[in-house]
Amino acid sequence: MTDHTSHDRPGKSNDQLADTHVEATSEEFSQGLAKTALRPYPDALAEAEKTINKLADEYLHWVQNNVDGISDKLNAAHNNPRSSAYALDSIADIAKGLSSTGHGFGYALITTIADSLHHYSCNTTQFDFDNIEIIAAHIRALRFVREQNMQGHGGLTGRRLTARLHDAVEKSLTG
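^ thats the sequence. predicted structure below, dont judge the formating
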């Protein structure tokens, strides 16, 4: 015997759901008067919020793994200067990934810091003490934002943090 129960809609079989339809004229529909026999799943909003919260937690874990990856690349370049070009390319790639996701999870400050790190790692040609310090400052900033769960732009603290990073990057790149 085939199970015709819908897993999305408890108490309704797939056949019953398929038979449900909406009859409305285009005028009624455009005026928002059309009604459907289907009712929203009562726990849909709660489940959606739960899923979003879970994804946000997973995102923060993903951020930490990527920040650790940047730190590993920085340490490898520091220990082996011949690998510095590869390390800068890898850091730029990781930063680009971080910058493309922060806003979507409500962490605009992560996007801003990662954009700065991406810009810096793409535009620096040498790997010296100053470069290491600027990249390390970005790593510390990303960790701070994650540990403090600073959503959005981070308020006054976020503005101060990004201003200091911006100043350090511009000073380093312009000489």
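The chain is about 65% helix and 0% strand.
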